[in-house]
TrEMBL record:
InterPro entries: Glyas_Bleomycin-R_OHBP_Dase, Glyoxalase-like_dom. This is Glyoxalase-like domain-containing protein. It comes from Corynebacterium provencense. The lineage of its organism: Bacteria, Bacillati, Actinomycetota, Actinomycetes, Mycobacteriales. It comes from the Bacteria. Coiled coil: none annotated. Residues 8-164 form the Glyoxalase-like domain.
Length: 245
């Protein structure tokens, strides 16, 4: 069996008002669903398909977060959250088939990593995140699920089918993440090398959502392009959303 390549998993959109943001997504045709609530932390998601999603996340109480399963991961992200000074796209996750091999590869080239393992006893499932700490926060973190993502996606599809839920074939689809950079070709090449995927000029060829760097855009991760999204760009809670033409 061929090992699947590294692939886009999810984007974290950090928001101040979760309820207002989910309403804005829904009104824009990006249907959301509630995800989970933990001490001090809440999130929801725009489910792109059975594997990929955009996570809408917020912390109501940082002290309470310390008792949640997400405490370590959120503390790793805290500097990037503080740098947002409000809301907007925070970072994104790349699913990898072998998380241990990814850890070894990153360490072998001198990167510093923080490993966060989360397990849910009631679901008999969880995930491992690997955060690279010596690079800009635009850099993604790596994630692997247990059971694997493709198994979870198949289970979700089977659950949908059993309940008569069918995806609209004409629903909006995430196409690309947008990053502003003064040195777009250099940064695209560096990110592709870190992830372990191809690059075309200023575009990183990440499976399931490419990453486009642009010298004429705000510095850092600032937006996404979405197909079947109408004709005009919009902004929701600091995230710029552009129609993919």
């Amino acid at each position: 069996m061929t090992t699947p390549p590294a692939a886009f998993d999810h984007l974290i959109h950090w928001v101040a008002d979760l309820d207002a943001t989910t309403a804005s997504y829904d009104n824009a045709g990006l249907a959301t669903y509630p995800a989970l609530t933990m001490p001090g932390f809440r999130n929801a998601a725009w489910g792109i398909d059975d594997a990929r999603y955009v996570e809408l996340a917020t912390v109501d109480d940082w002290d309470a977060v310390q008792t949640s399963k997400y405490s370590r991961g959120l503390q790793v992200l805290r500097p990037a959250i503080d740098a947002l000074d409000g809301e907007g796209p925070l970072t994104f996750a790349v699913n990898v088939p072998d998380i241990r091999a990814t850890i070894d590869r990153l360490r072998d080239v001198g990167h510093e990593v923080i490993i966060d393992e989360v397990w849910f006893e009631d679901r008999q499932g969880g995930f491992t995140e690997v955060h690279v700490t010596d690079v800009p926060h635009v850099t993604p973190f790596f994630i692997a699920y247990n059971p694997p993502r493709e198994v979870i996606a198949r289970m979700r599809a089977e659950h949908r089918a059993a309940n008569g839920v069918v995806f609209d074939p004409d629903r909006p689809q995430l196409v690309a993440l947008l990053v502003g950079s003064a040195t777009p070709e250099q940064d695209a090449a560096s990110l592709a090398s870190l992830i372990g995927c191809g690059v075309r000029g200023t575009t990183v060829d990440l499976q399931d959502a490419e990453i486009r760097f642009d010298a004429d855009a705000p510095e850092g991760l600032y937006g996404i392009t979405v197909s079947r999204f109408g004709d005009e760009p919009t902004e929701i809670a600091g995230l710029s959303i552009y129609p993919e033409v």
